[in-house]
Design a protein that fits this description.
The chain is of the alpha+beta class. The model has no long low-confidence stretch (mean pLDDT 89).
């Protein structure tokens, strides 16, 4: 399916392309191998183990990246929404094999950019190259956080450790500013969003933290430290 004008508009507002002029992007993609794929909710977009040589960017809808064990147990590694790229680092890894299965959670519209085309665009738009490298680094930090969190026994221990490591000293005290949605944060901890919300509520009821929208104030640093694994 060819790229339409509305697809170009959504692509220009995607995380990787925000610094690229929409008209220049349209010119660069004219006659290229870029394509649009659509998937119904529940459909498998990509299977774990498949060769990943074309970058996918979600334009509409959302999807989950799932890892399935040999016993059939599934774990959501990450939730991806409109504007986000899929597995940027895997695209340039040895073998380029996708480690997760991508499943559409809703009607999904995805733009597909072959690796050669992406490299050509990076050469033409340095801001795109910078955004691509930033996205790779951000995914690495995300996975490192997830690995660290899963090494702790309980969600409360993982949450206490993350809050203390993420906090910054402000006039009101230690504060954590959420840079992502609670849905995506719950994926870092390997739990459903309601489980994360309950733990935050419990910590708040014990007057260890105070939740203010996208900010979390640490009210009792020592009490929070006592929850960390020893």
């Amino acid at each position: 399916m060819r790229i339409e004008d509305r697809d170009l508009a959504m692509l220009a507002s995607a995380d990787l392309f925000k610094g690229v002029d929409a008209r220049e992007l349209a010119r660069a993609l004219e006659g290229s191998a870029a394509a649009i794929h659509e998937f119904a909710a529940g459909r498998v977009v990509l299977l774990a183990g498949c060769a990943y040589v074309d970058l996918r960017i979600i334009l509409e809808g959302d999807a989950s990246a799932d890892m399935v064990s040999a016993e059939g147990k599934s774990v959501v590694v990450e939730n991806l929404g409109a504007g986000q790229a899929v597995a940027t680092a895997v695209l340039f890894s040895p073998g380029s094999r996708l480690p997760v299965t991508l499943v559409a959670n809703s009607t999904l519209r995805v733009v597909v950019l072959p690796r050669a085309l992406l490299l050509s665009l990076c050469g033409e738009f340095p801001v795109l190259l910078e955004a691509l490298l930033f996205d790779m680094g951000q995914r690495l930090a995300f996975l490192a956080d997830k690995y660290r969190n899963l090494s702790f026994a309980t969600l409360r221990e993982r949450l206490a450790d993350w809050l203390l490591r993420s906090a910054q000293r402000k006039p009101e005290g230690l504060e954590v500013r959420l840079q992502t949605s609670k849905e995506r944060l719950s994926a870092v901890f390997g739990v459903a969003r309601p489980s994360l919300s309950r733990e935050l509520g419990e910590l708040e009821s014990r007057k260890l933290i105070e939740v203010r929208g996208r900010s979390i104030l640490i009210r009792n640093e020592e009490g929070l430290r006592a929850l960390r694994p020893r």
